[in-house]
Amino acid sequence: MVPRYSRAAMTAIWSPEARFGIWFEIEAHATEALADLGVVPRSAADALWAWWATKPEIDVAAIDAIEAVTKHDVIAFLTWVADNVGEEARYMHQGMTSSDVLDTCLSVQLVRASDLLLADIDALLAVLKRRALEHKYTPTIGRSHGIHAEPTTFGLKLAEAYAEFSRNRDRLEAARADIATCAISGAVGTFANIDPRVEAHVAAKLGLSVEPVSTQVIPRDRHAMFFATLGVIAGSIERLATEVRHLQRTEVLEAEEYFSPGQKGSSAMPHKRNPVLTENLTGLARMVRGYVTPALENVALWHERDISHSSVERYIGPDATITLDFALGRLTGVMDKLLVYPARMQKNLDRMGGLVHSQRVLLALTQAGVSREDAYRLVQRNAMQVWESDGQLSLLELLKADADVTAALSVEEIEDKFDLAYHFSQVDTIFERVFA
Amino acid sequence: MVPRYSRAAMTAIWSPEARFGIWFEIEAHATEALADLGVVPRSAADALWAWWATKPEIDVAAIDAIEAVTKHDVIAFLTWVADNVGEEARYMHQGMTSSDVLDTCLSVQLVRASDLLLADIDALLAVLKRRALEHKYTPTIGRSHGIHAEPTTFGLKLAEAYAEFSRNRDRLEAARADIATCAISGAVGTFANIDPRVEAHVAAKLGLSVEPVSTQVIPRDRHAMFFATLGVIAGSIERLATEVRHLQRTEVLEAEEYFSPGQKGSSAMPHKRNPVLTENLTGLARMVRGYVTPALENVALWHERDISHSSVERYIGPDATITLDFALGRLTGVMDKLLVYPARMQKNLDRMGGLVHSQRVLLALTQAGVSREDAYRLVQRNAMQVWESDGQLSLLELLKADADVTAALSVEEIEDKFDLAYHFSQVDTIFERVFA
Amino acid sequence: MVPRYSRAAMTAIWSPEARFGIWFEIEAHATEALADLGVVPRSAADALWAWWATKPEIDVAAIDAIEAVTKHDVIAFLTWVADNVGEEARYMHQGMTSSDVLDTCLSVQLVRASDLLLADIDALLAVLKRRALEHKYTPTIGRSHGIHAEPTTFGLKLAEAYAEFSRNRDRLEAARADIATCAISGAVGTFANIDPRVEAHVAAKLGLSVEPVSTQVIPRDRHAMFFATLGVIAGSIERLATEVRHLQRTEVLEAEEYFSPGQKGSSAMPHKRNPVLTENLTGLARMVRGYVTPALENVALWHERDISHSSVERYIGPDATITLDFALGRLTGVMDKLLVYPARMQKNLDRMGGLVHSQRVLLALTQAGVSREDAYRLVQRNAMQVWESDGQLSLLELLKADADVTAALSVEEIEDKFDLAYHFSQVDTIFERVFA
Amino acid sequence: MVPRYSRAAMTAIWSPEARFGIWFEIEAHATEALADLGVVPRSAADALWAWWATKPEIDVAAIDAIEAVTKHDVIAFLTWVADNVGEEARYMHQGMTSSDVLDTCLSVQLVRASDLLLADIDALLAVLKRRALEHKYTPTIGRSHGIHAEPTTFGLKLAEAYAEFSRNRDRLEAARADIATCAISGAVGTFANIDPRVEAHVAAKLGLSVEPVSTQVIPRDRHAMFFATLGVIAGSIERLATEVRHLQRTEVLEAEEYFSPGQKGSSAMPHKRNPVLTENLTGLARMVRGYVTPALENVALWHERDISHSSVERYIGPDATITLDFALGRLTGVMDKLLVYPARMQKNLDRMGGLVHSQRVLLALTQAGVSREDAYRLVQRNAMQVWESDGQLSLLELLKADADVTAALSVEEIEDKFDLAYHFSQVDTIFERVFA
C-alpha cells in the first residue's frame, strides 16, 4: 500500500481495527447460533453482544502484545476479548478453527471492498454518460494505427468507455458473488465438531452465502477469479488513460487533463502541461494486473490447505483493492474535468485536406457510371496532391477543378460527398444501445 | 501449439479451413442482409449460398498465394471466392471493413472453443461425481500444512473438486457470453457505410449478440476476461493434479495414476510408477496461466484500434484453448481411472497411533468434571508417548491403562471417543449441498 | 509457434531431426569417453561415429512409431539407432539416464538459439549505429509526457536504442553462459554408475561447461534466468517499436515504416500508411514477456526433479526464441529502411513559436541584472501570447518588440538565445561514450 | 510493504528521510562540481556541506507541507533546504532537472538494497555450506516424481542449494551493476545546460558509473533486469522451501523446521508441527515473482520519458526488495536450525525392502554370465514380492534364498550389491566442485 495512492474508506477496510471488529462479529454470531442449538448458554451470546453494544475501542496494541507471546493471532484476539467480556466469553469459538474466522473475515472485507469499487464504477459511469451526451455530436477524427481513418464523434469514444465500464461493473458483481461465502466447518471442513446450522446463521447475518464444501479454508479459485477481474478492470483504466494521453500530445491537443487557473506547468517551461494523472493511471494499472499472477498461483494449495496463500493475500488484499479504488477515483476526476477542444478536433479532422471523404467520392463516381478502375484513378490523382501538400490543398477544390470528375458528377454532388454529418447518422442508434 | 498436447476437435477450430469457412458465412449472411435492405441484388446472396451448398473445398494454398501479392488476408480471401463464385461475388463485403470479418470470426471460434471446453468440464464433473459417490465414506486423513490433521473422506476431497469445477463451468459460461458478440460497424464503428441491421442479421445467424458500440474492433476487455477465466480454470486443474501427485508419493501411496497390467514403470527400477500425467498437468496449467498477462495487456489499444493485439491472439487463441482442452481431457482420464487404495488410507490414518482422536478425549474428560488443565495434562502425557513411538504405541491402550483417566471415564466411554464415524456425520449434508 | 512469425534457422533448431542429431552426438561422445575409461569397447564408439559419418537421414516417423509402443522417447531413439548401427550400439547410454540426454540437448539448443539471437542483435546494432551517425545532428523535439520539452537530435534517440541493445547483448551473453552446461550424472546426480570424466568429455566436445552439481536434471534457475533475459529484450523491442509508432502518427509524421513505391496503403483510403510492423512487434513483445512467468514457476521442482517443467519447455523453448528471433529481425528491417523526415521534425520543433527557448531567455535576463521575478514575468507575458496563438506568433519577434526586454538585452543577445545548435554541444561527447 | 514481512535495515533505505538524504548528497556533490567548473561560487558548495556536517534532522512533515502547495516534491525539498542553509543554497540544482535527482537516488537505493541482499545470500550460503558438510554423508533417498529413485545424501541436497544460491549471488552482482548508474544530463539528456563533468563527479562520489546516454531518465531496461533477477532468486527460495515442506510431511518427516522446547504446535492437537515458515516463503516468492511483470512493462516509456514507471516503482522498489530481504533471512534461519532426522531418512530409505539396489543386482547377474532377459526375470520375481509386501520383505533375503540367483552369484557377492556406500563414491568430487 502506497499512501499517496490510497483513499481513506478503502484503507479502513484493511485496518487492524476493522479486521478485529469483523472477527468479533463472526464469533458473536456463531455463539448466538450455538446458543440457539443449546450447545452453549444463551447468556454467553448475550454477554458478547452486550459488551459490543458499548462500542468498545479495539486495543490493537494489547492484542499484538498477547500475540507476541502466543504466536497465534486468533488466540490472542480471543484472549483479549475474554479479558474484557469476562467469564461468559469462554464459550466463544467452540468447535471452530482459526480459518473459519480468518476466511470468513476476508470474504467480508472483499465484499466491502467490492461495494466501494462498484460505487467507484457507478461514479465513473455517471461522468462518462454526462460527457458522452455533452459531446454526442462533437466531430473528431477516428484513428486506426494512430493514423487518421474516418470521422467519428467524441461522444462515441466516451460511449465506448461507458459500455466497457458497464461490462466491468457486471464482472465485478459476479466476482463479488464469487467471494461472498462463509465457511464455519472445522479443522478439515467436515463439521465434525460444529453444526452446519451455525455456518448458515453466521452467513445470513453477514450477508454471505454458505460455502457448499470447504476444506480447512474457502477454496482459492474464488479469490483468483476476484483478483483476475480487478486485473481486467485495470486494463480498461489503462485504455481510457492512454486515450487521454494521446489526445493531450502537443501535436494533437484535442483534450487535456484539467489545469486550474494560475497553475504552473513548469517553473522553467511555460508550455508544459503534462498528462501526469493518466500516465500515473497507466502505472497503477500495471500493478493491479501484476497481482493477478500470484492470485492464480494461490489456487493449488496442498491437500486440505497449506498457508502459502496467506502472505500473498496480506499483500494483494489491500494493495489491489486500494490501488484500484484510487485509480477509479482518479480516472473519474480526470474525465469529469477533462478539457475538451472541439475546435482543435475540427482542425485536426481537416488537416488532411478532406482526404477522409475520398471513399465516398469513389463510390459516387462508380454509381454515376464510371468504371471502378477509372474512378479510383481519378480520385487518387487528386488525393495524392493533397497528401503531398500535407493537407494544404483541398481535395474538394481539386475535384471540382478536375474536368473528368465534373463530367460525371455535378459540383453539388461532389460537395455533398464532403458532408461530415453523413458519418453520424447512426450515432443515435448507438447511444440508444449503450445508454437505454 | 504443441502437437502432443493437442486434440483434434479443438485444433480444427483454429485451422485455416475453419477460419475461411467462418469468413465466408459472415460475408454471405451480410450480403443476404444487404439484399433484404435493397442495397445489393438478391441474386448476389443467392449465388454465394448456392456455391457454398456445393461444399467447396477451401484452397488454402491458393488464398495464401494471392495474399503473397496483396499483402492482405481478407482481400486475398475475397478474391479467391470471387474467382469461384463469379460476377455476383462483387457485392460481397460492401461497406464492411476487414476487422468486421476478423473479429466476428474470432468470436465464433472462441464460442466454439468454449463449447468444447464446457463439454470437457461436464465430462470431468461426471467422473468426479461418480468417484465421489464411490468413496463417499472412504476414510482418509485430512492434512493441513502437509501434516495429519483430522479424518475426512476421500469422497469429500472429490466433492470439493466437483464444486470447484462447477464454479469454473459457470465462469466459463459467463466468459463465453462475454466474447459472443458480433461487430459489423465499419471503419471506426460509426456504421457510416453499413446499416446496423446487417450486423443484427449476421449476429442472429451466428448465434452471437450485437456489440453495442465498437470501434474498428470488438473491445478487448472481453477477450481479456475470457483468457483470465481460462487461467483460473488452469489453477483448479493444478490443484487437483497436485493432490494426486501428493497421494502417489512413495511414503503416502493412497492413490495412483492408472498403470495398465504388464506396463513397466522403468526398465531398471521396477518400483517406479510416477505420476507423470499430473506432473504434466501442472506444467500445462503454468502455460495457460501465462497467457493471461498478454491478454490483459491487449486491452489498452490506441484510439479506435491498433493491431498489436492481433499477433498475441494468433498465439494465445489456439494455444490457450487447445492446451486447456487437452489438460481437461487428461485430468478426466486420470480421475476416471485413478487407482484408490482405501487400505493404505486407513493405514496412514492409523499411523499416528490414534492421536487424531486426542481432542475428543480431552473434551470428554472436561465434561466428566476434570479441570481443563488436568485433562490436558492427562491426555498429553499419554499422547507424547505415542508421538515418540512414531505411532507404534496406541493412544487408546495407554489411556485405558491410565488409572487417572479411568477414574473419570469408563473403558467404554474412552473407546467411544475413538470412533472414526463421528467425523463423518455431516458428509451427507455436504453431498446434498454439492450434488443436489 | 506461429509460422508467420518464424524464421527458418531458428525453427530448425527445434525440429525433431535437430533434436535427435544432438541426442546422437551426446550418446556417441559419452560412449567415446566410456571407451577411454575402458568401460566399453573402443569398437562401440567407432561404430557409432562410422555410421554418423555417412550422414544418415534421421527417420522421425520410425522413431515415433517405436515410441508409440515404448511410451519413452529416449528408449525409442536408442532402439532406432541400434537398428541402424547394429550390435555395437548396445554399449550406448551405459550408466546414463534419459535426463542426461534431454537436459544436455536442451542446453545445446538454447546455446544455438542464443547464438542466432546474438547475431540478430549484432545486425540490429549495426543498423542503429549507421542510422544514428546519419542523423547525429538532425534536430528534433524531445518529448516528455508526450509534450514538447527541449530539442534533441534524432541521432541521439538512436544512440539511446543502440546503448540499450548493447546492454541486452551483454545480458544475453550472460544468459547463454548460464544455460551452457552439461549434466551426465545419473539417476539422482550422484554419478553412482557413471564416471564424472564422461560428463567432462561430453561437455568439452559440445562447448558446454560441466554442471557442478545436478539432481536428476540441470537446475531450472538457469533456464528461468535465460527466459527472463529474453523478456527484458522484448521490453526494449517494444520501446523502440513504440517510438516509431508515435513518430508515424498522422499529426507527428516525423518518420515512417518503409513503403515500397507503388504499394497501396488501403484500397479505399489512399492516405493510410500504418505502422503495422511496429504494432506487430508490440504484440510479439507481450508474448515473449508472457513466457517469463511459467519459466519462473519452473524453478521449484520437487526433490531431485518432477517433470512439470518439461511441458512448459516444449512450448516456451521454441516459442520464446523463435518469436524473439523474428522480432529482432523485423525490428532491424524497420530501422534499416525507416523513412525519416527531417523537414517535418523541424516543422514540429518550430510549431510552438520558439517557446522551447524560453528558459534560456529567462536565464539571460537574470544574468543581465533583472530580478528573477521580473524576468519570469517578462518572458511569461510574451510566451503566453505565443501559446495562445498555437504557435502562430513567434516568441523571438514578440521579445524583440517588448521594450522592457530590450532594455536589458540587445536584439543580438536575444536572437542568440534562439540558437538550436546550443542544445547539441555535447552530442559528440555522448556519441563517444556510446560508440567508442 | 507488509510490516510483518519487513526488516529494519532494508525498510530504512526506503524511508523519506533516507531518500531526502540521498537527494541532498546528489545536489551537494553537483554543486561542488559546478564550483570546480566555475559555474557557481565555491561558497555555495561549502555552505551546503557545512550545514550537512551538523547532521541536521530532515523534517519530512515540513517538506510535505511545502509539497502540498508546490505540488512538486523536488522543488519542495529544495525550498526546505534553502530555508535551512540560507542564501547560498540558491546555486543548488543549476541546470539539472528533477529526474536527475530522482533517478540517481533510485540507483543509490537499489545499490544499497543489493548490498543488503548480497549479504543475505552470503549468510544463507554460509549456513548451507555448514549444514552440507555436516550431512555430507547422511544417506537419504533421492526422489524423482515424488517417488523413491536411488540413494543420495542430505549433504548433496544442500550442496545443490548452495550452488544455486551462488549462481543467484553472481546474478545479483550483475543486476546491481546494471542499475548502478548516475544520470545528470538535463531535461532530455543532451547536457544542454549542464556539463557532463558534473555527472562524472557525482557518479564517482556515489560509487555509481555514468549513464552513457540517458533521455530525461535512466533507461528502464536496467530496472527490468534488476527486478527480473529478484524474481529468479525468489524461484530458488521457493524451491528450497518446497523441499523442506515435503521433508516435514507426516509420512516423510525426515526434517522439520525448528520448534523450541516447550513450544506447542496446537492447543488441541499435540502432533501438529507445521512447516509454516517455508509455506510462508512459498507465498512470498509468488509476490516477488509477481513484481517482475510490471517491471518489464515499465521499459517501453514514450519518447524521452513518460512518468508511468514512477508509480510502479513506488510499489515494487520497496516491496520487492523488502520482501526478498525478509525471505532470505527467514530461509537462512530455517536452514540454520533445521531439525534433521538421519534415522528417519534411513528408515524411509529402507522402506522399500532394498528395491533401490535392484539395478546393481541385475547388472551383476549379467556380468556373471546370465542373459539380460533371464537376469531381469530373476530380479523381478523377487522384487515384485517385496513391492507387494510394501517393504515388509527384504529383497536381499529373498535373493539369497533364490537358488537360481545363488547359482550365479555367491551370497557375499549379492550382499556386496546392497552396499549403500557405493552410491556415495563421487560425493567428494561434487563437493570439491561446489565448495572449492
Could you describe the 3D structure shown?
Chains A, B, C, D: Keywords: Lyase, Purine biosynthesis. The structure is a homotetramer of 436-residue chains. Chain A has 436 residues and is mainly alpha-helical. The first copy, chain A, folds into 3 domains: 1-94, Fumarase C, Chain B, domain 1 (Orthogonal Bundle), CATH 1.10.275; 97-346, Fumarase C, Chain A, domain 2 (Up-down Bundle); 355-417, Ribonucleotide Reductase Protein R1, domain 1 (Orthogonal Bundle). Chain A has helices at residues 8-13, 16-36, 42-53, 60-70, 73-85, 98-134, 154-179, 196-206, 221-247, 276-290, 292-297, 308-337, 342-350, 358-367, 372-388, 395-400, 403-406, 411-416, 427-435, and strands at residues 139-144, 147-153, 181-182, 209-210, 255-256, 339-340. Chain A is elongated and about 105 Å long. Chain A starts with 7 loop residues before the first helix and ends with a helix. At the A-B interface, strand 1, strand 2, helix 7, helix 9 and helix 10 of A face strand 1, strand 2, helix 7, helix 9 and helix 10 of B.
Order of helical and strand elements of chain A? HHHHHHEEHEHEHEHHHEHHHHHHH
Number of helices of chain A: 19
> Structural class of the secondary elements of chain A?
mainly alpha
CATH superfamily (homologous) name of the largest domain in chain A:
Fumarase/aspartase (Central domain)
Content of β-strand of chain A: under 5%
How many structural domains in the coordinates of chain A?
Answer: 3
- Give the largest interface pair and sizes: A-B, 81 and 81 residues
Family (chains A, B, C, D): Belongs to the lyase 1 family. Adenylosuccinate lyase subfamily.
Protein name (chains A, B, C, D): Adenylosuccinate lyase
Pfam families (chains A, B, C, D): ADSL_C (PF10397), Lyase_1 (PF00206)
Organism (chains A, B, C, D): Sphingomonas hengshuiensis
